[in-house]
Amino acid sequence: MTIQPKHLDQADRIRQAHDDRNVSIRSRAELTPEAKTALLAKNYLAAKESMAALQQTAGADTSEQRTKAERSAFGTNGLPGDPATVAVSYRDAMDRAATLTTSADATALLARADRAGDEPLARAVAGHAHDASTSPLGRMDPGWSGVVDSYTASRPAAARAVDTLRALQPGATNSTRSMFAFVLPKPSELGSTPDYQMAALAASAP
User: Fold this and answer.
1) Helix/strand/coil for 166
2) Is the pLDDT of residue 170 over 90?
3) Secondary structure letter of residue 188 according to DSSP
4) What string of DSSP letters covers 70-127?
């Protein structure tokens, strides 16, 4: 999953707040070692819960953004005519595009659609090409991406949406920060203590 910068920043803040509270707990001279361990466990479980919620939100936000971009790039928005008729034409076009097995055939069909002014077919072919270009087998054929590029060359709004889709592809961001975005280091005092034992520790925290 590609992680948006705002979610990376939120994850960093959760980690930093967790670390800051740990420092505060460790500095409390009035606490016994057992009490400190219990508070560390309570702090860790709370931060872990926050991180899990953020990860779920990040996934949902990315999925929603991808759906909106796909509709903007390849959907029926903005097509003239009766919506019901447009929907039928587009479904037929998608069925036709789904039979394409090579990028060369897709290139040829897109060219014919453009010449005929058949925008539903052009969008269906481009959408099929985009899906193919992101599949494990399709990635081996750069022609699929070429079909999408040909489609967006004369459609600026679609080009922006496709840029968004490509940025959201898994692996588009391979930074260490993204790879470990939702990892929360466990305090050393807790060692290999499993979560169910930490819950008991947390419950005993002063």
Assistant:
1) helix
2) no
3) G
4) HHHHHSSTT--S-HHHHHHHHHHHHHHHHT--SHHHHHHHHHHHHHHT-HHHHHHHHH
**Angle at the Cα of 205 from the Cα atoms of 202 and 206, rounded to 5 degrees:** 165
Question: What is the pTM assigned to this prediction?
Answer: 0.74
* Exposure of 203 in the CB half-sphere (CA atoms within 13 A): 6
Q: What is the pLDDT of the chain when averaged over all its residues?
A: 92
112: number of Cβ within 10 Å: 13
Nearest to 131 by CA among 103, 156, 112, 150: 103
Read off the pLDDT of residues 48-67 as tens digits, 9 standing for 90 and up.
999 999 999 999 998 999 99
Residue at token pair 């500095």: 27
Q: pLDDT (tens digit, 9 = 90+) per residue, 105-130?
A: 999 999 999 999 999 999 999 999 99
DSSP string for residues in 16-74: HHHHHHHHHHHT-TTS-HHHHHHHHHHHHHHHHHHHHHHHHHHHHHHHHHHHHHHHHHH
